[in-house]
UniProtKB/TrEMBL annotation:
Every PX domain range: 21-140
Stretch list, region Disordered: 1-22
Annotated organism of origin: Gossypium raimondii
PROSITE patterns attached to this UniProt entry: PX
Biased segments, Low complexity type: 1-21
Coiled coil location: none
Pfam families, sorted: PX, Vps5
One MF annotation (Gene Ontology) recorded for this entry: phosphatidylinositol binding
Protein name: PX domain-containing protein
Lineage top rank: taxon: Eukaryota
Length: 286
């Protein structure tokens, strides 16, 4: 009895560490909605957290690419000097925009994007992130459809902006422009490193694309050769026909293998390199 009481007391000890805070997000289940230029892909965004400011431990919402753009733009405007993760590019080509490979590649990139934000000590506290992860679709659409850019500014902000421009133009015309400040050597060194890194990564991306393209083209050629060999085998005698048929089967098997390797190159090599390029470009903008 004494041992049981001791065990019970120890389990309720105030010295027990509190559960660790967590915020995890998954982007899944892409679905095509609409047709033509009005078509788009929606994603299921699932949030699991023990943050007290969130509405429950789990929330599921539906989001589209433009919602992710809204989130990044809001964070980019509010968190000056903080690296905001980049978004994957938006394909303007119809036949690529809805291909299974493009949709899956983008889904993974969006998942990485939102989890980078959720794991950042400052960005994870953003009210805009909470809105993105919790608001219903109608509320999100209203927020997204609000005018942005110069038309979103208040009249007083616009007047100040025009005054600043006018002042700068006058200084240039009258020869009163401020002398250029001496650059910081450490800043220039870091700037040079970032530009060089971008150049190297861009070159690596080009090589990755060429390698991926070669695998795909070779796989497609072997597939066509395999089908042709099988057709030729059907026209020949038993022994020769069997040889052509086996050659065709081997070619098609090799074609499938090359196509799988091409997909692995895309997901494990080209896409990560592209992500690094986008990240460096985002750093340059900041």
């Amino acid at each position: 009895m004494e041992q049981q009481r001791s065990t019970s007391e120890s389990s309720q000890s105030p010295r027990s560490p509190p559960s660790q805070r967590y915020l995890s997000v998954s982007v899944s289940d892409p679905v095509k909605l609409g047709n033509g230029v009005q078509g788009y892909i929606s994603y299921r965004v699932i949030t699991k957290t023990n943050f007290p400011e969130y509405q429950g431990s789990e929330k599921i919402v539906i989001r589209r690419y433009s919602d992710f753009v809204w989130l990044r733009d809001r964070l980019f405007d509010k968190y000056k000097g903080i690296f905001v993760p980049p978004l994957p590019e938006k394909s303007a080509v119809e036949k690529f925009r809805f291909s299974a490979e493009f949709i899956e590649t983008r889904r993974q990139a969006l998942d990485v994007f939102v989890n980078r934000i959720a794991s950042h000590n400052e960005l994870q506290q953003s009210e805009d992130l909470r809105t993105f992860l919790q608001a219903d679709e109608e509320s999100m659409e209203r927020l997204r459809s609000q005018e942005t850019g110069i038309f979103k500014k208040k009249p007083a902000d616009l007047m100040q902006m025009f005054k600043d421009v006018q002042s700068k133009v006058s200084d240039v015309v009258l020869g009163k422009e401020k002398p250029l400040e001496e650059s910081n050597p450490e800043y220039e060194k870091l700037k040079h490193y970032v530009f060089e890194l971008e150049n190297h990564l861009t070159e690596a991306q080009k090589h990755a694309y060429r390698l991926l393209k070669r695998h795909r083209e070779l796989g497609q050629s072997l597939s066509g050769f395999g089908k042709a060999s099988k057709l030729l085998g059907a026209c020949e005698g038993q022994a020769l026909g069997k040889a052509f048929d086996e050659l065709g089967a081997k070619s098609e098997t090799l074609s499938i293998k090359l196509q799988k390797e091409a997909h692995q190159l895309l997901m494990n090599f080209e896409e990560p390199v592209k992500d690094y390029v986008r990240a460096v470009q985002s750093i340059k903008v900041r």
